Amino acid sequence: MSDQLEEIFARTRPTAVQAIRPPGAEAARRTVRIRRRRRAVGLAAVLVLAVVGGVLVRKPAPGPSLPADPVRLTQTAKVALGTSTLPAAVEKAAEVTPNWSSSSPVYHGELTLRAACAGAGEITLAVIGNPGSESSQTEPFELARLKVPCSQRPEPVETAFEPSGAINLDYKIVESTIASRSAGFAYRLTSDTGKPFAMGDDQANPTAALHLTSDEGFGTGGSLSARRPGWKDDLPSHVGGDFRILAACTGDGTLVVEILKKSGKVVDTVRVPCHWPPKRYDFEPARGTGDLYYRISYKHITMPSTDFAVQFVPK
């Protein structure tokens, strides 16, 4: 720097120092307020961006729900039935469709229908009996009706019925709140006979259980209810007063066979245990004299009726 410039600065410094005042307390407060405003504005801008970002950046809409898997739902319903202590007479699983139906033979005893449905809604399963030639019915008739609720975690429901007068059974969905093929169901039919015996099965026939090799003597048989008085009839004279009694009956009660004189005096009484399948029992009652008749009745435990066969064979 030249000597002339140094001289100029030297002359002006005292004047500048007097003119420049240091900032006081008010100036300091003003500076703090300015800084705070700048921070508030910056924060507001960040919040606006966040809100705008929340509005503009939207999650993608969920796609359409996948259709129900009827195969999986049918299997779920089948598993929901659980296990049974009794052998199944009928056990099936199927997709729910409006016109679904199935058939089976008629089985002896009191039958229990158990069903479960996987999906959403409700179905009504009906059991229809088809009458035989000896039935008083001329048209198919309903034996049982079961409302089955459907859910993702099915709970089985059941009902019991007796197939009186039917020669075979039809199972039908008669009501449904479910779209076709959007649910699956399963059902099981069991009998209180334990092992299921279809009508016409020789294993369930008391006469077949006697294993008769001839028609010697006199025989009787049929169905008998514990709620009705037993039947009675004369013993034919060719049977005589000295004979054996062969007997078999179905169920879990006792068949009572009495031999009586015309006066009403009891000569002897035999008691036949009833089974499924029926089993033959042989008895040798006390000898009777004169005109005799027999009386047969049934005492039940849980099954209110029995099918029986009794043969009186001369010795």
Please describe what this structure looks like.
Helices cover 20% and strands 38% of the residues. It is α+β, with helices and mostly antiparallel strands. The chain is elongated and about 175 Å long. Strands 1, 2, 3, 4, 5, 6, 7 and 8 form an eight-stranded mixed beta sheet that branches. It has a four-stranded antiparallel beta sheet with strand order 9-16-11-14. The longest helix is centred in the N-terminal third of the chain and has 32 residues, at 25-56. The chain folds into three domains: 21-58; 70-191, Galactose-binding domain-like (Jelly Rolls), CATH 2.60.120; 202-314, Galactose-binding domain-like (Jelly Rolls), CATH 2.60.120. Strand 12 and strand 13 (266-273) form a beta hairpin.
Labels describing this entry:
20% helix, Jelly Rolls, transmembrane helix, elongated, membrane, 16 strands, 315 residues, alpha+beta, 4-stranded antiparallel sheet, 3 domains, transmembrane, single chain, 8-stranded mixed sheet
Briefly summarize what is shown:
This protein has 315 residues and is α+β, with helices and mostly antiparallel strands. It is built from 4 helices and 16 strands. The chain has helices spanning 3-19, 25-56, 70-80, 206-209; strands at residues 90-95, 101-105, 111-118, 121-131, 141-151, 157-161, 166-176, 184-191, 218-225, 231-234, 243-249, 254-261, 266-273, 281-283, 292-299, 305-314.
